[in-house]
């Protein structure tokens, strides 16, 4: 029962994340592209009431996500956040009159089936507090942290790496949120606080990378990478590092692999659909991608399932 409650809370968190992500993307396109991958970009955005309101809405989903991770495995909860794409699809259909065709229906069915298979492949309720292997945990977190900061280290033309960095950063924040939830549930307040701080840092870096990517690159290139990465990486991390499904064998592993493959395909398909791009275009007045980067980015951008606080 706890796992089902976790899934429902994660789905609710996804609604908050996506409801605030569209106005976030609209505000960032008003800033000069020269600020891409610079902390000053977030400083300037923090002075925009619209961006702050949207960010507050996104952040409101994080406590729900954290509670979901306290009730269910990371490899089940995180993929559920991809269901937030349905919010954008619904908005495109209801508010803008966008047609929902065969591609949209198949992608939605694939999304639901993929999430259901991942949940079904879970071996059952996990312990309230798990002792993770320190070496494996350090290597996994360190690798994701390096991928998150890589664009800042490389600089130009690092915006090509920004979508990968954003996805890695949001995946990392999901993992540290899971670790925080486990520690707090076990009464380890200091360790829980450290992971909470790590979650905030990872989320800020991921947000900077995502906002920078939206400034200079079209949604068809940015969103599939961010969405698929933050949905798939926590599943792999949960299985290989946190050993959440160590009891799953044979058919359980096959179901897990099938569910993950279907989920990633569905997420990439949904992220590329014109219906989702139309939501952002109508909200922000975005036009087509310019031939060269200029004063204010006018690339079409879509929202991330972020799955994480921004």
Can you describe this structure?
The chain is an all-alpha fold and 310 residues long. The protein has one domain. The chain is built from twelve helices and no strands. It has helices spanning 2-28, 39-45, 49-71, 74-80, 85-94, 102-120, 134-154, 162-185, 189-216, 219-240, 251-272, 274-284. Helix 1 runs antiparallel to helix 3 (49-71), helix 5 (85-94) packs across helix 12 and helix 7 (134-154) packs antiparallel against helix 8. The longest helix has 28 residues, at 189-216. The protein starts with a helix and ends in a 26-residue tail after the last helix. The chain crosses the membrane at residues 76-93, 99-120, 132-154, 160-177, 184-205, 225-242, 254-273. Keywords: Membrane, Transmembrane, Transmembrane helix. Residues 297-310 have a biased composition (Low complexity).
Q: What keyword list fits this structure?
A:
71% helix, 12 helices
Mean pLDDT: 77
Beta strand %? under 5%
Q: Secondary-structure element order, as H and E? A: HHHHHHHHHHHH
Please give the share of residues in helix. Answer: over 70%
Structural class: mainly alpha
Q: Given the structure, what is the number of helices?
A: 12
Query: Which spans of ≥5 residues are poorly predicted at pLDDT below 50?
Result: 284-310
| Biggest pleated-sheet summary | none
Give the termini distance in whole angstroms. Answer: 30 Å
Query: How would the global form be characterised?
Result: globular
Secondary-structure map:
Elements: H1 2-28, H2 39-45, H3 49-71, H4 74-80, H5 85-94, H6 102-120, H7 134-154, H8 162-185, H9 189-216, H10 219-240, H11 251-272, H12 274-284
């Amino acid at each position: 029962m706890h796992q089902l409650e976790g899934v429902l809370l994660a789905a609710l968190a996804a609604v908050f994340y996506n409801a605030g992500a569209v106005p976030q993307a609209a505000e960032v396109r008003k800033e000069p592209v020269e600020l891409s991958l610079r902390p000053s970009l977030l400083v300037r955005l923090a002075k925009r009431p619209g961006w702050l309101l949207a960010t507050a809405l996104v952040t409101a989903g994080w406590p729900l996500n954290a509670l979901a991770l306290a009730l269910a495995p990371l490899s089940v909860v995180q993929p559920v956040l991809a269901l937030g794409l349905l919010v954008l699809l619904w908005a495109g259909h209801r508010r803008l009159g966008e047609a929902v065709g065969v591609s949209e229906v198949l992608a939605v069915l694939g999304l639901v089936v993929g999430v259901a298979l991942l949940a079904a492949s879970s071996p059952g309720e996990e312990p309230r507090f798990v002792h993770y292997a320190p070496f494996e945990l350090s290597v996994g977190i360190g690798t994701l942290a390096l991928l998150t900061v890589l664009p800042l280290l490389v600089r130009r033309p690092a915006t090509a790496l920004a979508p990968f960095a954003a996805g890695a950063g949001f995946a990392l924040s999901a993992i540290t949120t899971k670790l925080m939830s486990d520690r707090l549930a076990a009464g380890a307040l200091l360790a829980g606080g450290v992971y909470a701080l790590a979650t905030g840092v990872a989320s800020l870096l991921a947000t900077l990378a995502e906002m920078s990517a939206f400034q200079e690159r079209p949604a068809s290139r940015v969103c599939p990478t961010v969405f698929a990465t933050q949905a798939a990486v926590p599943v792999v991390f949960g299985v290989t590092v946190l050993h959440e499904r160590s009891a799953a064998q044979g058919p359980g592993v096959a179901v897990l692999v099938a569910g993950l493959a279907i989920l990633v395909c569905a997420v990439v398909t949904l992220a590329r659909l014109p219906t989702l791009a139309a939501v952002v275009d109508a909200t922000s007045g975005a036009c087509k991608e310019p031939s060269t980067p200029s004063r204010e980015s006018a690339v079409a951008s879509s929202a991330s399932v972020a799955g994480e606080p921004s």
